[in-house]
Amino acid sequence: MERRDFLKICGGTALLGACAGPPPPPRKGPAHLVYADTTSGLVAVDARSGLRLANPPGSVPAADWTRLYTLSGDSLLTVDAVTGRRITSAGVPTSKAVRAVSPNGLLVALGDPLPATPYGPPGRRTTRLVIADPSGGRTPTTIELDGNYEPDAFSAEGGALFVLQYLPSTAPEAYRVRMLDLASRQVGPILSREKTPVSEEETMRGESRLAVLSPLRDRLYTLYTHQADHLHTRDLVAGRSTGVHAFVHVLSLTEHWAYCLDLPEPFGHGPAEGHAIAVSPSGLYVFDGASGRLVRADVEELVVKGVGALPATPGPAFAAVSADALHLAAGASLLTVDLDSLAVLHAARTPGPPRGLVVAPDGSLYAGVDGGAVQVDARNGRELARVPVPGLTLLRHATALPGV
């Protein structure tokens, strides 16, 4: 079959692989591609036709979702995330999974798949990572580390890889965030917010890790919950004995520093899946559905500027920011909240138990539910379109269809 025939069968937008069955009857829907994790991996679905598009197994998206990266044998493939066109194929040492992609897409970290849980035995005594250039312009580098490490994120310029070191290595009970210098291949501490090396490094054990990139992709915000009596580096250095149950770990990908923004009570006491995090150009938002508490922090000062009291909504919670509002989906509630005052602007019902919440570039709001993605009117919860996604576990992204 020639490629033009393949694209015709698959509705004109085909990710690498085979078309997932005959096309459904034509229908008019929103002009978006939605991306979701499913029981069979990451998939993309044409919301206009309802066609589930095939894509490379084990795909990992770039930060801006313009590219997908995957392994095929001893080749690292780069695929256009919208058109399905293979962009590059680079030979790499045998690896099992794509683990991290640099913000500019110029480097990819390869290694073992993420374990179901990093805690407890068997762990591992050594870690093998491969740092590859997906264009094939540079020879891949294989790095062997003593200890149990998991890739977290590349620095913005690509000179370092932030990693999670699990301790003890063969039966981990906690971890700490560290920095692997790719030139020297040495692992060391990250900097304090004052850009000085820390003398004592904090260890953590979170029940859940939710991470979001800043709009400029220069910071990574990670929410940690259930951190009973946790002590930050600044507490350790000062000899303090206070602890917190939840905080946001702020990692600068440009200046290599980290800072922990403490969250007030009762954050961290409720179920981990009931917490949600989102970020706008000026504000960081964290929601605890069990208590209904919502905090807004200034991203420059890294201090909490406001606390809102919303209806308590037990169950998994998700957050997404549009140009003029914060959207929350938790339990049966779909809330639209003012970005500054934290007042509820609109309250509606979710189209089903939520499994993700995303905003498309044109402001359209999609909620993930069992079996699909639903475009909803945030003002009243009215269902505008439903996109079937069999086996959906998490709705991750939505973008415009090409040429629309």
Helix content: under 10%
What is the residue-averaged pLDDT? 87
Strand content: over 45%
Number of helices: 2
Number of strands: 32
- State the end-to-end CA separation: 27 Å
User: Order of strands side by side in the largest beta sheet?
Assistant: 3-2-1-32
Q: Assign the structural class, choosing from mainly alpha, mainly beta, alpha/beta, alpha+beta, or little secondary structure.
A: mainly beta
Shape: globular
Largest beta-sheet characterization = 4 strands, antiparallel
| Uncertain regions spanning at least 5 consecutive residues | 1-21, 23-27, 229-241
Radius of gyration: 21 Å
- What does the oligomeric state look like here? single chain
Summarize the structure.
By secondary structure, this protein is mainly β.
Would you write up a description of this structure?
- A hairpin with a 2-residue loop joins strand 1 (32-38) and strand 2.
- The chain has a domain at 92-189.
- With 404 residues, it is mainly beta.
- It is built from two helices and 32 strands.
